[in-house]
Amino acid sequence: MTFSWKIEKSDIQKIKNVVSENDNQFLKSRIERNVEKKNISISKDNVIHSMIMCLLTSQQRSGPNSQVAKFLNQKPFSITAELIERTENKEKSIKQIFLKNGLTRFINKNSEYFSINFDEIKKNDWEIMKKLEFLNENQSKTNERELADFLKVKLKGFGPKQSRNFLQALGLTKYEIPIDSRIINWLNDFGFPVKLSSALLSENNYYHFVSDGIQELCEKADIYPCVFDAVVFSSFDDDEYTAENIML
After folding, report:
1. Contacts 24+ apart (CB under 8 A), 11-14
2. Residue 170: which of 54, 1, 11 has the closest Cα?
3. What is the dihedral of CA 106, 198, 236, 216, to 10 degrees?
4. How far, in Å, CA of 167 to CA of 165, rounded?
């Protein structure tokens, strides 16, 4: 059984309109990073930063002026590979850093998941770096999805959304995007051919189905899904993004 996407000219125009209406700094940064591939750096520290970002933003407010955003935008960032590798009790150390920065929501779970994930990455001798480098050099819809699905299985606390959030934050994806309730609500208002539910996004096949629809729509509108994600995401934050408060 197959599903056929039928996209009208009016659908394409709606997509183009939302892009033009949200031409903000967040969108500009997304295009520079994920489309034009500027300043891409695949390092242990950046992997750690993206992993922390995914855990912290999973179930709490992370808008441009939130406590989470302020923490993630620290320069230099307080959690580094060197720090973690010489820390005897990783979970306790991360928890203390979170507490110091007022990040108490799900603090026990996030600290535990980070420690488990770091140990898994270290145990595999940072094999993840090779996979990230491969995707950076061989970008395609298929390769993006395969790596996102791999990370979903390998990283504790990561579902389909955060595995894609992780890759997108590193600047490695254009097609696979983190789909959440914002995207689902927008698509339902837009007139997606079936009524969508954010509660079902944890199921891989359902996530793929929604992602396929977004990719098809964006292809017809001649934009990348990562651009669509940026304009929809930022449209909920009243143009609060500046060059200084964008989480990368």
Report:
1. 11/190, 11/191, 11/217, 11/220, 11/221, 12/217, 12/220, 12/221, 14/190
2. 54
3. 130
4. 6
Domain ranges of the chain: 9-38+177-235, 44-169
Tokens representing 188 are 């339902």
Q: Give the 3-state secondary structure of residue 246.
A: coil
pLDDT in tens, 219-242: 999 999 999 999 998 887 655 655
Give the SS3 label for residue 23: coil
Asked if residue 244 has pLDDT above 70, the reply is no
Query: How far is 183 from 135, CA to CA, in rounded Å?
Result: 25
pLDDT the model gives residue 54: 95
Residue 107: per-residue pLDDT: 94
Query: Given this model, what pLDDT does residue 100 score?
Result: 95
Mean local confidence (pLDDT), 64-82? 91
Pick the CATH number of 44-169 from 1.10.340, 2.60.120, 1.20.120, 3.40.1350: 1.10.340
Output the CA–CA distances (angstroms, integers) from residue 60 to 25, 68, 103, 235, in the order listed.
Answer: 23, 9, 10, 18
Residues 6+ apart with CB under 8 A from 109: 157
Helices of type H across the chain: 9-21, 25-30, 44-57, 67-72, 81-85, 90-100, 107-123, 127-137, 141-154, 160-169, 181-190, 204-221, 225-235
